[in-house]
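Recall the central idea of this unit: under ordinary conditions, the amino acid sequence of a chain determines the structure it adopts. In this exercise we apply that idea directly, starting from the sequence alone.
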Amino acid sequence: MKVIILLFLFYPLYFIFANQLQSKLIINIDKFNNDKGKAYVAVFNNGEAFSMNGENALKYGIFEIKNRKLGVEFNNLDYGKYAVSVFHDENNDGKLNKNFLGIPKESIGVSNNVKNKFGPPTFEQAKFNINQSVIEINIQMQ
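Accordingly, the structure predicted from this sequence is:
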Protein backbone atom coordinates (compact mmCIF):
# COMPACT_ATOMS: atom_id res chain seq x y z
CA MET A 1 0.00 0.00 0.00
CA LYS A 2 2.89 2.38 0.79
CA VAL A 3 4.36 1.74 -2.64
CA ILE A 4 1.10 2.68 -4.34
CA ILE A 5 0.86 5.89 -2.32
CA LEU A 6 4.49 6.80 -3.14
CA LEU A 7 3.94 6.11 -6.84
CA PHE A 8 0.80 8.22 -6.78
CA LEU A 9 2.71 11.11 -5.17
CA PHE A 10 5.88 10.99 -7.27
CA TYR A 11 4.53 9.95 -10.67
CA PRO A 12 3.43 13.52 -11.59
CA LEU A 13 6.89 14.81 -10.68
CA TYR A 14 8.41 12.59 -13.36
CA PHE A 15 6.43 14.42 -16.06
CA ILE A 16 7.26 17.83 -14.64
CA PHE A 17 11.00 17.18 -14.69
CA ALA A 18 10.98 15.23 -17.95
CA ASN A 19 9.26 18.12 -19.75
CA GLN A 20 11.80 20.59 -18.38
CA LEU A 21 14.55 18.77 -20.26
CA GLN A 22 12.84 19.14 -23.61
CA SER A 23 12.68 22.23 -25.73
CA LYS A 24 10.87 23.94 -28.57
CA LEU A 25 13.11 25.18 -31.39
CA ILE A 26 11.80 28.18 -33.34
CA ILE A 27 13.56 28.81 -36.65
CA ASN A 28 13.10 32.10 -38.53
CA ILE A 29 14.40 31.92 -42.10
CA ASP A 30 14.57 34.86 -44.49
CA LYS A 31 16.21 36.12 -47.68
CA PHE A 32 14.72 33.46 -49.95
CA ASN A 33 15.13 34.49 -53.60
CA ASN A 34 11.38 34.09 -54.19
CA ASP A 35 8.29 32.19 -52.99
CA LYS A 36 8.50 29.45 -55.65
CA GLY A 37 8.84 25.81 -54.64
CA LYS A 38 9.32 24.68 -51.06
CA ALA A 39 11.83 24.95 -48.23
CA TYR A 40 13.31 21.76 -46.79
CA VAL A 41 14.31 22.25 -43.15
CA ALA A 42 16.27 19.62 -41.21
CA VAL A 43 17.43 19.45 -37.58
CA PHE A 44 20.44 17.30 -36.69
CA ASN A 45 21.93 16.26 -33.37
CA ASN A 46 25.22 14.80 -34.61
CA GLY A 47 27.89 15.55 -37.16
CA GLU A 48 27.78 12.18 -38.90
CA ALA A 49 24.23 12.78 -40.10
CA PHE A 50 24.55 16.51 -40.89
CA SER A 51 23.88 17.31 -44.54
CA MET A 52 22.20 19.87 -46.73
CA ASN A 53 19.69 17.38 -48.19
CA GLY A 54 18.21 16.37 -44.83
CA GLU A 55 18.91 12.66 -45.03
CA ASN A 56 19.22 11.06 -41.58
CA ALA A 57 17.87 14.20 -39.88
CA LEU A 58 16.45 13.95 -36.39
CA LYS A 59 13.51 16.20 -37.41
CA TYR A 60 12.57 17.23 -40.92
CA GLY A 61 9.87 19.20 -42.68
CA ILE A 62 8.88 20.67 -46.04
CA PHE A 63 7.30 24.12 -45.89
CA GLU A 64 5.67 26.81 -48.04
CA ILE A 65 7.53 30.13 -48.35
CA LYS A 66 5.59 33.39 -48.03
CA ASN A 67 6.99 36.86 -48.67
CA ARG A 68 10.49 35.35 -49.01
CA LYS A 69 10.34 34.25 -45.33
CA LEU A 70 9.49 31.21 -43.27
CA GLY A 71 8.97 30.47 -39.59
CA VAL A 72 8.92 26.87 -38.32
CA GLU A 73 8.88 25.12 -34.96
CA PHE A 74 10.17 21.73 -33.90
CA ASN A 75 9.05 20.42 -30.51
CA ASN A 76 10.23 17.83 -28.00
CA LEU A 77 13.95 18.24 -28.57
CA ASP A 78 16.16 17.03 -25.74
CA TYR A 79 18.71 19.43 -24.36
CA GLY A 80 22.00 19.17 -26.26
CA LYS A 81 23.86 20.27 -29.38
CA TYR A 82 22.04 20.69 -32.70
CA ALA A 83 22.52 22.12 -36.19
CA VAL A 84 19.94 23.11 -38.81
CA SER A 85 20.18 23.00 -42.58
CA VAL A 86 17.75 24.51 -45.10
CA PHE A 87 17.53 24.35 -48.85
CA HIS A 88 15.13 26.09 -51.22
CA ASP A 89 13.78 23.64 -53.77
CA GLU A 90 12.73 26.30 -56.27
CA ASN A 91 11.89 23.88 -59.07
CA ASN A 92 9.96 21.41 -56.86
CA ASP A 93 11.99 18.36 -57.89
CA GLY A 94 12.55 17.23 -54.29
CA LYS A 95 16.32 17.63 -54.26
CA LEU A 96 19.06 20.22 -53.88
CA ASN A 97 20.30 20.83 -57.41
CA LYS A 98 24.05 21.31 -57.88
CA ASN A 99 26.31 22.21 -60.78
CA PHE A 100 29.02 19.92 -62.18
CA LEU A 101 31.43 21.06 -59.42
CA GLY A 102 28.93 20.14 -56.69
CA ILE A 103 28.08 23.75 -55.86
CA PRO A 104 24.38 24.25 -55.06
CA LYS A 105 22.32 25.96 -57.76
CA GLU A 106 19.50 26.54 -55.26
CA SER A 107 19.89 28.65 -52.13
CA ILE A 108 20.88 27.09 -48.83
CA GLY A 109 21.10 28.18 -45.21
CA VAL A 110 22.50 26.76 -41.98
CA SER A 111 22.37 27.64 -38.32
CA ASN A 112 24.96 30.24 -37.27
CA ASN A 113 24.71 31.51 -40.89
CA VAL A 114 27.93 29.72 -41.79
CA LYS A 115 29.32 30.65 -45.21
CA ASN A 116 32.01 28.36 -46.58
CA LYS A 117 33.82 29.13 -49.80
CA PHE A 118 35.24 25.62 -50.10
CA GLY A 119 32.86 22.79 -49.31
CA PRO A 120 29.63 22.54 -47.37
CA PRO A 121 29.33 23.82 -43.79
CA THR A 122 30.10 21.30 -41.07
CA PHE A 123 28.11 20.34 -38.00
CA GLU A 124 30.83 21.88 -35.82
CA GLN A 125 30.45 25.24 -37.57
CA ALA A 126 26.65 25.21 -37.47
CA LYS A 127 26.03 23.72 -34.03
CA PHE A 128 24.24 25.54 -31.23
CA ASN A 129 23.17 24.49 -27.76
CA ILE A 130 19.61 23.85 -26.64
CA ASN A 131 19.59 24.38 -22.89
CA GLN A 132 16.24 25.99 -22.13
CA SER A 133 12.58 25.35 -22.85
CA VAL A 134 12.39 27.63 -25.92
CA ILE A 135 15.25 28.46 -28.29
CA GLU A 136 14.90 30.79 -31.27
CA ILE A 137 17.43 31.00 -34.10
CA ASN A 138 17.59 33.05 -37.30
CA ILE A 139 18.90 31.77 -40.62
CA GLN A 140 19.55 33.82 -43.75
CA MET A 141 19.50 32.01 -47.06
CA GLN A 142 22.59 32.26 -49.24
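The longest strand covers residues 69-78.
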